[in-house]
Amino acid sequence: MKRIVLIALAGISLAGSAQTHDGGYPITPVPFTSVKVTDNFWGQRLRASREVTIPLAFSKCEETGRYENFVKAAHPSSEYKVEGYSFDDTDVYKTIEGASYSMQTYPDKRLDRYIDSVLTIVASAQEADGYLYTARTMNPQHPHEWAGSSRWEKVEDLSHEFYNLGHMVEGAVAHYQATGKRSFLDIAIRYADCVEKAIGDKPGQLVRVPGHQIAEMALCKLYLATGRKKYLDLAKFFLDKRGYTERRDAYSQAHKPVLEQDEAVGHAVRAAYMYSGMADVAALTGDTGYIHAIDRIWDNVVTKKLYITGGIGATNNGEAFGENYELPNMSAYCETCAAIGNVYWNYRLFLLHGESKYYDVLERTLYNGLISGVSLDGGGFFYPNPLESVGQHQRRPWFGCACCPSNICRFIPSLPGYVYAVHDKDVYVNLFMSNTSDLNVGGKHLKLAQTTGYPWNGDIRLEVTPKGKQDFTLKIRVPGWVKGEVAPSNLYAFSDRKQLGYSVKVNGEPVESDLDKGYFSVSRQWKKGDVVEVHFDMEPRTVKANTKVVADRGRVAVERGPVVYCAEWPDNDFSVLSVLMNQKPEFTVEHKPDLLYGIDEIKTTAQALSYDENGRLAAKDVTLTLIPYYAWAHRGAGEMAVWLPQDMSATRPSLPPTIASTSRITASHSSKSITAINDRLVPEDENDRTMPYFHWWPEEGTTEWIVYEFEKPQTVSASTVYWYDDAPWGGCRVPASWKLHYRDSGGSWKPVTNRTAYGVEKGNGNTVTFAPVTTNALKLEVVQPEKNSSGLFEWSVE
In this structure, are residues 655 and 611 in contact, taking their beta carbons and an 8 Å threshold? Predict the structure, then answer.
């Protein structure tokens, strides 16, 4: 069979005929296989992905039983206990996808053979009619608790059968692109046919939509890969029926029909995937109603719900968008998968509209909220990406719910496909990184070679090499940060009075151009040896948020070029949460080639505020050091902050030591988050999720404990607890009861003689007073509710 030529679209490979297919979009992507990155910054990331991230993900699929699930599904048994998540199969599919992208630019016969062996296992689990869902098939009598008693019964809820299909298709087309083999593609086609036969408006079919979106994007890709319109029709069916089935909640963006939606709500990853699918269907069908809807939703995000890091999804309650202007920092969720989805969505909007503002958001997300989700060495991951921490956040090598690591696997190798795009005789230069590329412009071959130190400086050199003399327009994106725009809205604004400039030269001669949709256009007859030199002024800038963003009032953030900075504990010998920025800060920049794989470090003078033992406020002059946000949490646990106080109303002076803060903590079930209980940070009210907390989840109905061991014997007579209760979404509730014990001189635990009741009120400090005792340790004993866990924000002792 003739091999189909594929192109990379937003980390997803679209297929067409022998000619490069634009997927219906007015602007044609340049495939990532046509762009060879030679950049120090991104080259290191691509190498880490190839050498560490992808092998790690495959090894974790082995260790955690992902492959074993397929083996069991090939030989079903009522004895199997179905564990894990109903979407664990997708970690295999996504890792194969990323490995396939990698193999296209870095062929690897050993990896190719390994994937073949995995696909043999996957194929063996497929049922005769194409159904492939190990969470049911391995034990049809007792499937996964989320699967339902029959196929598609809970596909709008938790079964993830269509979500599994989506990632299967994504991985299968990528694998076919890389190898020319149909082994995975045929598996995906058979499952897609199984779904298409069962789901629809025809007699005997079921009307269902995905609980977790992504199948919409994938089916568009499968349509382009096969030419079978039924897959596009199914993608459109999934969108058009949303809001009309039994599932009608905001969490899954089913609260109203998609064409009527105008606000980003619910689970942020599902939302971004759906909006991307709407763009694909619109491009392929010409249905402008989808475009109008996602334009409205995009406007809502960039004006009210976008973090300065480009992250989306403010709250862990449903991993969801918050209310308008709800952008907390320490509890910011900003899931790594959501950042990837935000890139997909903005890329598609650029392909539809050709405006640089979408790339401004994409670039901000890419350099900050996305790559922060994976460690510099490629071996550790964040699920949420908060903008403030007291040390409770650290990257991990894998998660039980491993969607983020496997998503990183598939995104990073696709990055070169985002650099350029073509429309007729227009060549868009959208991202700045050293590379060599081969483009097709107006049916003619064109080579571009880009050299730059971006993001550390704004100098870009483009060598243009057409086959002969060639007429075309080079459209160079002038980033919003150069033009004085933090984001394409009034959500953020530069607070200094700096005005940056830019210049473009062709063969050493300055050229002028009015910006068109954010692009500097150079139209001419190009010849071999032509050189374009672009310069963007790049200086540290301070940013303020819209005053409606309560969390950032009186604070500033610092960025330079596309990179957002943060203050972290290893670089500062004072609490970075106690700092007060100068009203007119001045910055110095120093390149640190040996720090964090090479960064530009920013320094400025500031003050560190603290209370002494008598409660008197003191200010100390300090030098504040800032590093790129993406590079934090590589040197141990500790404080970090992006938004730094500039007004006294926003400051948080360091508090003097207390009995609790200097105690050694042990607990019945300990974790790194145990440090939250004596950090002296308390919630504002019962709904505050911005403060760190500790809990005993998933233990339920048990008796648990925490012990403070004092540095020396103390006489104590009161204690206050702030309970953590995440109803209705989470599993923690205030305790059924609690009490305090002290350790006597003989080492035995004795109950205190309390004079006031043990309170369990949410949102307030529950203080209990008791007859004074002199002891070297105090124990908090908690009886959890029968069907819930308990937790606490803070436990103080007086």
Answer: yes
pLDDT tens digits for range 503-532: 999 999 999 999 999 999 999 999 999 999
Percentages of the chain per state (helix, strand, coil), in multiples of 5: 30, 25, 40
Residues of 767-790 as b/e, b for ≥16 C-beta within 10 angstroms?
A: ebebeebebbbbbbbbebbeebbb
Residue 52 near residue 379, CB atoms below 8 Å: yes
Tens of pLDDT along 692-715?
A: 888 998 899 999 999 999 999 999
**Strand arrangement, sheet containing 444-452:** 35-37, 435-441, 444-452, 459-466, 530-536, 502-506, 509-511
Burial status of residue 666 (CB atoms within 10 A of its CB: 0-12, 13-18, 19 or more):
middle
Other residues' Cβ atoms within 10 Å of the Cβ of residue 539: 12
- What type of residue is 182? R
Q: pLDDT (tens digit, 9 = 90+) per residue, 450-493?
A: 999 999 999 999 999 999 999 999 999 999 999 999 999 999 99
CA–CA distance, 116 with 180 (Å, rounded to integer): 12
pLDDT digits (tens, 9 = 90+) for 57-75: 999 999 999 999 999 999 9
Distance CA 539, CA 314 (A): 29
Tokens 């029968």, residue? Answer: 786
Range name among 17-21, 226-230, 427-431 with the lowest pLDDT average: 17-21
Active site residue 263: no
Catalytic residue (choose from 220, 403, 409, 566): 403
* DSSP string for 723-785: EE--TTTSSB---SEEEEEEE-TTS-EEE--BSS-----BSS-EEEEEEEEEEEEEEEEEE--
CB 381 within 8 A of CB 405: yes
Closest CA to 561 of 643, 630, 639, 490: 630
Query: What would you measure as the largest C-alpha separation in the chain, in angstroms?
Result: 93
Burial-class residue 610 by CB neighbours within 10 Å (0-12, 13-18, 19+).
middle
Nearest 5°: phi and psi at 244? -115, -5
Distance CA 124, CA 120 (A): 6
Going by DSSP bridges, is the β-strand pair 426-429/470-477 parallel, antiparallel, or unpaired? parallel
Handedness of CA 215, 219, 220, 222 (dihedral sign): positive
- 640 phi/psi in degrees, rounded to 5: -155, 145
- Interval 532-542: pLDDT, tens: 999 999 999 99
Q: Give the separation between CA 111 and CA 107, rounded to whole angstroms.
A: 9
Which of 524, 643, 541, 547 is CA-nearest to residue 584?
Answer: 541
User: What is the pTM (predicted TM-score) of this model?
Assistant: 0.92
Q: Is the peptide bond before 455 cis (omega within 30 degrees of 0)?
A: yes
The residue from 127, 170, 196, 319 that is catalytic is: 319
Nearest one of 396, 258, 250 to 336, comparing CA atoms: 396
Q: How far apart are CA 52 and CA 46, in angstroms?
A: 10
Amino acid present at 402: A
Question: Are the CB atoms for 160 and 87 separated by under 8 Å?
Answer: yes
* Environment class of 675 (CB within 10 Å of its CB; exposed 0-12, middle 13-18, buried 19+): middle
- Taking the alpha carbons at both ends of the chain, their separation in whole angstroms is 78
Pairing of β 644-645 and β 555-560: antiparallel
C-alpha–C-alpha distance, residues 707 and 667, integer Å? 6
403 tagged catalytic: yes
Residue 22's pLDDT band (cuts 50, 70, 90)? low
Q: Is the pLDDT of residue 11 over 70?
A: no
Contact yes or no for 417/30 (Cβ under 8 A): yes
Token couple for 546: 């819209």
